[in-house]
Amino acid sequence: MTEHKVAVVILNFNGIHFLKQFLHITVKHSANAKIIVADNASTDNSVIFVKENYPNIEIITNSKNNGYAGGYNHALKKVNASYYVLLNSDIEVTEHWLEPIIKAMDEDKSIAACQPKLLDYKNKAFFEYAGAAGGFIDKYGYPFCRGRVFNTIEKDEGQFDTSTEIFWASGACLFVRASAFWEVNGFDEWYFAHMEEIDLCWRLKNIGYKIMNISASKVYHIGGGTLSKYSSQKTFLNFRNNLSTLTKNAEGTALLLKIIYRLFLDGVAGIKFLVEGQPKHTFAVLKAHFAYYVKLGYILKERKKMKLKNNFCNATTGIYNSNIVFDYFLKKKKTFKKFKQF
Prior knowledge:
The chain is of the alpha/beta class. It contains 11 helices and 15 strands. It has helices spanning 16-28, 46-53, 67-76, 99-107, 178-183, 196-206, 232-249, 255-275, 279-294, 296-307, 324-329, and strands spanning 4-12, 34-39, 58-61, 81-88, 91-93, 111-120, 123-127, 135-138, 143-145, 148-149, 152-153, 164-166, 173-177, 210-221, 319-320.
């Protein structure tokens, strides 16, 4: 297996329309990287399209749709590279998008993962929901971003052009050091999709690595290519995986109280869905809680497994030490810079 410094790995599931739209741009602007399409058992002729139009692109075929987490785990075991770049198929990259991040990771071996600035493909003056200018989290496990807090998305006016340490890097365009990825055993495949990158980054931080946003690199993301924001399945995965991530990785002091408080807030969210005439989403929240309880033994086992690592350090950099739900909805703090701790 030939070793490469950088491998851009595009996980695809029935995304031939995105491959037709964006793959030629990725090829054009990734001259020094190995490009790989990892296919999750697509049925839409994606593989045939790549073979016929891009004979130099390597194709890895998974036997079934293992979701984002399992799909990448299975594919990356077959990729020999120093850096993986996990790139959604619905992203338009830009010229020199790779170089600033790889340079930063080369110069600082403590950086395990990075993301570029993610902007909205449909409205390029604004940040994109799934990462914006880097991810953070509050003490109850709620994720948010520089440039996006809940559904408030900021216009990019250069306010986040400084590269900085963050808490999590978006899975839409995730640069990760291969050795670090496997040091924590990759993604948790039980997640299937959604928040697996937050879990991965938290585990990396808990053994001493840094996660960075390098704003000199930017890409444009469509978003919602697999599950739209209106999908009850997405609601289920987000609530279930978020609870799991908090339980697996958070510092132990008052963890039980945090989880109880989270369960209460999730209940409020379920009632809100019901009042808004979205009973499927209310059911998805209940289903997520049930799945969490059923899998709690596994989740606690994974927590213990990480705790046994000699260099476990309970990372706190990038955690907002308050409740972002309360601050956003009641105090009306809508933009990242309103949160003074950052």
